[in-house]
Amino acid sequence: MTNDTIINEQQIEGILKKQNILEAALIKEILAKALELKGLSLEDVAALMCADNQDLLSELFQTAKVIKEKIYGKRLVIFAPLYVSNQCSNNCLYCAFRTGNKNLLRRALSQEEIARETRYLIDQGHRRVLLVAGENYTQGNIEYILESIATIYATQHETGKICRINTNIASMTVENFRQLKAASIGTYQLFQETYHRATYKRMHTAGKKSDYDWHLTAMDRAMAAGIDDVGLGALLGLADWRFELLALMQHAEHLSKKFGIGPHTISVPRLEPASGSEIANSPPNPVSDLDFCKFVAILRLAVPYTGIILSTRESIAIRRKAFALGISQISAGSRTNPGGYVDDTDEFTSSQFSLGDHRSLEEVIGDIVALGYMPSFCTACYRLGRTGDTFMGLAKSGEIKDRCLPNAIITFREYLRNYATQETRELGEKLIAEELERLGEEQRSLVAKMSEQQESGVKEVYL
Length: 463
Ligand code: SAM
Ligand code: SF4
What we know:
This protein is α/β, with parallel strands linked by helices. Helix content is 50%, strand content 10%. It contains 22 helices and eleven strands. Helix 4 runs antiparallel to helix 12, helix 4 packs antiparallel against helix 14 and helix 12 runs parallel beside helix 14.
């Protein structure tokens, strides 16, 4: 398979050239169409990218907010990255882990160290982690990753355990993807970084990842191996964000056509300063805060049922803004240096990039609750096998929402009781009471039943 069958650069360039001047009426028509929740075409997306006057932008953001609330309500799913290794044989010029960065303190955590990091995250209240690693596993195989996954799942601590592990690790063979699936991962995430072939070539100068097609076709191999939840992303700041957005749409469309199911999530990482990286410290195509918000909002309209993930790369202010524009999952309390949760002394010498939001999970939870969002620690879908097609079917029919809110309330309550400060607990219980008021009779009694089970000591109550 070549790049051209998945990403058609000529088509993207052609669309971008055509879209210089657009009438406001057309943009309003597209916004109205988006509210039908059926997604948008490439041309529609390109037209929305031209919205630049204040009125149209406000309408775009308002539409994204409406769609987000229709599908996800006030929920925000919470996770933390768990960096197990910063050893890497690739040379991605924007990343501190690149092989050419001789100043980085390298470290691959032992299984005991991984268990320690996991215990720390459990004790903060986390239930969902994203396992992250550079591409240099011992003897070039994925045994290390498989062992790490097993260690995380096996680590039980006082009040709980990690129930879902997603991964953000290198592209691999179908056989390796089968092993990864057998290890019970949730979503396999891999960011294309840039879909623009020439830019990709300039940015990746050594190692397996320098092969654009090998990287691009990873999701085809993952899905062929039976992993039906995959997460796409582009690293914003490398090429024109408009190009990346259209290419992401093409990638999603390709998966949808070939496997009958599009991506489960799309991440929106924006370049952050990284040790010794000129590219990261001075991005070739910087994305302004406004364009970043446009990117998130348009994505929400274009793929309404695909989760959008926002990390702690972004500042507190941008995170607050973006929640309303369609973000459905966020990381919180993150460290990007292996071992950084238990011991943060190497943060500046072994991290992947600098964080925009350095707050603890407790602080983030307090903040989002004050903004009216309901944190969710739910992992029910994954545990009940509601993945891929099954999940999307339920999401599109609206059925999943009826289970998500009760599950969010119950898991959030568990968090509040076991981990929160008195102040956050009071704020959280108030938010839960308000949400319960809004629920219908049937759902309210369902939550009451689940609460009873929870009170009687049953762990992990979910629908
Ligand atoms: N090594 C695997 C890979 O490259 O796909 C996965 C892990 S990598 C540590 C995770 C992601 O971090 C990359 O895909 C890239 O998008 C992002 N990243 C790298 N350098 C970054 C930077 N300076 N700022 C923000 N994100 C960065
Ligand atoms: Fe290695 Fe991933 Fe960083 Fe590239 S982005 S240098 S592959 S860790």
